[in-house]
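Before going further, it is useful to explain how the protein records used in this thesis are read. An example of such a record is reproduced below.

***
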Amino acid sequence: MSLPLSQNKPATGWQSLRTTLEMIKFEHSVFALPFALIGALLAARGWPSGRQLFWIVVAMVGARSAAMSFNRLIDRHLDAQNPRTADRALPTGALRVRFVIWFSLVASAVLVFAAYQLNPLAFRLSPLALAILFVYSYTKRFTILSHIVLGFCLGIAPAAAWIAVRGNLSPNILLLTGAVTLWTAGFDILYACQDVDFDRRIGLHSVPQRWGIRRALQASAALHFLMVLLLLWLAWVEHMGWITLAGVGVASLLLLYEHCLVKPTDLSRLNAAFFNTNGWIGILLLLFWGADILLHSG
């Protein structure tokens, strides 16, 4: 049980950093990073340089850390009212607001610096990327399209990686941006089902809050179906082989499994669907697409 705000002594120094990394679920960078790496591999049609890979990973970690810490800052008062999130570090007082502000600023600077190390276009676009990431935190206050905005926050990762490698933007990679956007929006709708009563009481906007859980699950499934179609389209325009198609098939089966786990009357397995299944989808797509690209790069 969390202590009231006044009874918790904020952590300092390394304890604060560790608590912040736990708060933003640092390990969940796995959701967007595989798609960024797919974008980089497609752009290079093989291995990008080690330097490019290093700064792409640094930029991705900086971007997600900035976005998640900013989101926790903006939502701290809402989190304090939600029984599911009331024990997070900011609502309980385990972290000082000032520390998280500085963490978000430093993470933003890491992204900008990494973009500077990559190429001029990546550097010029880095403030726009940050603006997109930060705007998301406000969207659920006024639109059910917040799921799509969150999806786009992850969806720009492969396009950003393409820019990092080539210094330009191809329409083809936007198919992967669209696929990741739909994938993320779909599982975010699933995740929002557990807060439907709270969202209705507070006045926050989400698909489950507006349409109900049953129709929200249907909308999520439809978005994931469209995601698969976009992946197949990208595989066609990029002349990918059977390994890539096999990867899309495996991802499709995982998505189907994910939707079998969650029922309108039973959300008890939601966390397994959200964290475990989606984490594997990104990793497996990277392995299949990466193997296809690298085998044919010579």
In short: The longest helix spans residues 270-295. The CA atoms of residues 237 and 277 lie 27 Å apart. The chain is about 75% helix and 0% strand. The chain has one domain: 14-295.
